[in-house]
């Protein structure tokens, strides 16, 4: 089933479980390579779940360290293993998924990054505690579309984030909006939409006033 919003098309799956299963398949993951995987039936389900959760956390920490060291190829392997080890614990795997998407983006694997950012956006859209991650995923999707030359879709997503602007925003939220405004400004400038670009510059000045107490 597909959903189209402002020219932005998503493949909608009925449940988070279906989305997670689809995502796991997209990783082309070899379960035999996962140290958490076992064919043994001797362990009770609770013990197996606890072991997998602990292993997932260890794998994620290893991946984070490799990511910090810019060892993206190695980090990718551990992030994929951590996501698989988390299993149906969708929320716990979100940070791993987001970092994995950033690796794909850094490596110019834009289509793979797009898939992950979409998954993160859909899973977090109704989780209040993950609202910032939801906005980050949406912003990253817009960046991906801009890099792919899909300017109309990028613009629609930037506008969606910018529309959330309010005077009560936190510092991190202001930074996100400012980033979106800057990227949106570049799109408008490149397409010779001078008036729109001028309006965006005024919005940028307002955001910077919120952030620093005066316009830069």
Parts with pLDDT < 50 across at least 5 consecutive residues: 1-14, 29-44
**Which class do the helix and strand fractions yield?**
mainly alpha
Number-wise, the strands total: 2
Task: Please count the helical segments.
Answer: 9
Q: What fraction strand?
A: under 5%
**Major beta-sheet overview:** 2 strands, antiparallel
Helix content: 55-70%
Second rung of CATH, namely the architecture of the largest domain = Alpha Horseshoe
What does this 3D model show about the protein?
This protein has 216 residues and is mainly alpha-helical. The protein has 2 domains: 2-153, Serine Threonine Protein Phosphatase 5, Tetratricopeptide repeat; 165-216. Helix content is 68%, strand content 4%. It is built from 9 helices and 2 strands. It has a two-stranded antiparallel ribbon.
Describe the structure concisely.
The chain is mainly α and about 220 residues long. It folds into 2 domains: about 1-155, Serine Threonine Protein Phosphatase 5, Tetratricopeptide repeat (Alpha Horseshoe), CATH 1.25.40.10; about 165-215. Helices cover about 70% and strands about 5% of the residues.
Characteristic terms for this protein:
mainly alpha; Serine Threonine Protein Phosphatase 5, Tetratricopeptide repeat; 2 domains; 4% strand; two-stranded antiparallel ribbon; single chain; 68% helix; 216 residues; elongated
């Amino acid at each position: 089933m597909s959903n189209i919003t402002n020219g932005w098309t998503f493949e909608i799956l009925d449940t988070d479980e279906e989305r997670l299963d689809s995502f796991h398949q997209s990783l082309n993951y070899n379960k035999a390579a996962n140290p958490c995987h076992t064919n043994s039936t001797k362990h009770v389900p609770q013990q197996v779940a606890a072991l997998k959760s602990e292993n997932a956390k260890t794998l994620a920490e290893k991946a984070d360290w490799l990511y910090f060291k810019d060892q993206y190829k190695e980090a990718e392997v551990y992030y994929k293993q951590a996501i698989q080890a988390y299993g149906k614990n969708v929320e716990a795997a979100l940070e791993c998924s987001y970092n994995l998407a950033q690796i794909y983006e850094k490596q110019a694997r834009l289509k793979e990054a797009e898939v992950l950012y979409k998954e993160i956006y859909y899973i977090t859209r109704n989780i209040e505690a993950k609202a910032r991650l939801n906005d980050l995923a949406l912003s990253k999707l817009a960046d991906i579309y801009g890099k792919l030359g899909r300017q109309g879709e990028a613009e629609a997503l930037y506008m969606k984030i910018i529309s959330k602007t309010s005077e009560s925003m936190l510092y991190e939220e202001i930074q996100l909006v400012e980033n979106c405004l800057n990227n949106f400004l570049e799109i408008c400038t490149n397409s010779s939409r001078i008036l729109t670009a001028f309006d965006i510059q005024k919005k940028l000045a307002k955001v910077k006033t919120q952030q620093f107490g005066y316009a830069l």
